[in-house]
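Summary for the funding panel

The consortium committed to producing paired sequence-structure records for every protein in the target list. Below we show the first two records in order, beginning with the earlier of the two.
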Amino acid sequence: MVATKRLLALLALTLVSAGASAAVLPADRADAMYHSYSGDGVSIDGPSILLRKKAGNNWSFSANYYVDTISGASIDVRATASPYKEERTETSVGVDYVHNKTSMAMSYTNSSENDFEANSVYVGVSQDFFGDLTTLSMSYSRGEDDVGRRGDASFAEEAQRQKLGVGLTQVLTKNLIVGINAENVSDEGYLNNPYRAIRYRDADSARGFSFMTEVYPQTRVSNAFSVNANYYLPYRASLYSDMRYYTDTWGIEAGNAKFGYIHTFGDDWILDFHVRYYQQDQADFYQDLFSRPDEYNFMARDKELSTYQSFSTGFKVTYEWQFSSQRIVEKSSVNLEYDYMKFDYDNFRDVTDDAPVGEEALFGFSANVIRLYLSVWY
């Protein structure tokens, strides 16, 4: 039964528990994580520390410190520049408040690089209804970005971002929990990457093409809708799924589906296996190769705005051990997550390929993601 209870708790991290009598504060805990990403010639790794502590019966406070060390050169960089190395640090503080069946959360986050500074605030509220079988949640966040460019002290741009979210979670049976969510994001200001460039045909160039800086619209509005479900199986296991549809004013339409299976072994081990598929259509102003510079008002060659598909599969293994409730540390867990990802682009070509202009090989790459973290409840 111990492992069964832990499995149900794992399933309900973002959903409502059928047995809850009121909103519940996050548990007192500390997490230390190391993360690593390797793909497309780029390596990203670093640590993260998260602390949570309750104050009385109604308040909980949290603080998080996260570091990304980035090195290497993606295909965009290899085509126009040399490898680079930089560090991004992110710090956040938050507070949660619970009263009867209502919970509220607020947080502030700062993300800093040598050429980028972002600050954002988040506010969320959720309410339980109908014997705690239904939960309605709403959230709002707003961010301000300051964008610079390495080697150009005169370059300074700004962007503003805001996001509205609403979600409804319903316990349908003793084994099935379903959630639906909607999200609206509005961006305004400088929305492109100052280092990315479009390429255009140039008969005077030895390569047959040249580069110029991308030009994006200064506004973007997106909407996303998702449905997720968790089904508890009778032999201490569960199935879960998530389906999401996305569209925006740049002409991108995308969808993804994720399916997973969680299984417990004994009282201490939990295994999670999952697969995910993603597909999107290109932005209206995207092209791999333009005919001339300034051909259109807006021009982009960012591969993330192209038509492409990705597939990922991975696992997570968790080992937990309990301590006496009289000790300072009540329980602890160690978690290892691994994901393999494959990306295939339909209309983004590898310009480093030795082939006629516009006939280069289509680009694709794979990546490996590892997360190792220790959690302690106190």
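The next record, for a separate protein in the list, is shown here:
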Amino acid sequence: MNRESFDGRLVYWIDSLNTWVGKVFGWCILLLTAATCYEVFARYVLKAPTDWAFDAAYILYGTLFMMAGAYTLARNGHVRGDWLYRSWQPATQARFDLALYFLFFFPGIITLIYSGWDYAAHSWAMKERSLFSPNGPPIYHFKTIIPITGVLFLLQGVAEVLRCLYCVRNNVWPPRLGDVEELEQVLQKQYGTESQEASR
């Protein structure tokens, strides 16, 4: 079959944006690790626990979790029940994905943006502060991440739909930007290469 070339400039731009965001916010894990280690040291060695560790932990982890979500989708890294899915032809996979994107993904993400915007706006209006520690650090900045995450997911959803449409027409998935690879995929490639060499 003569396959159309994949002009993925928009798709790759969205992938690149979410990759950059995911990698920048990935540094939250180091800040979270440092804050947790200091809290353990202060609590058990200095006998002087901090009053900010809990707030720091959920804000840093929540930020990392939300801002890395679209990056994970760009890498096709979210968990799926793929024991049946992987046996299908790529075009069948793409049709199934398209149905799920329009039935569940986009309605859910649009709801997240709409509700998250109201949630963040209310938090900013009252200059909301945390109730979990005496200092009560401001958390309206943190809640602003909710609608931002929704917008990044919405953009990535558009990129994934374009991928699916290409795959439906051509029965092959277009390439993705690569920076990390699942160990399972590495082993499959290695095993496949060794099998081909052994069969020669």
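Regarding this second record: The mean pLDDT is 89. Residues 90-125 form the longest helix (36 residues).
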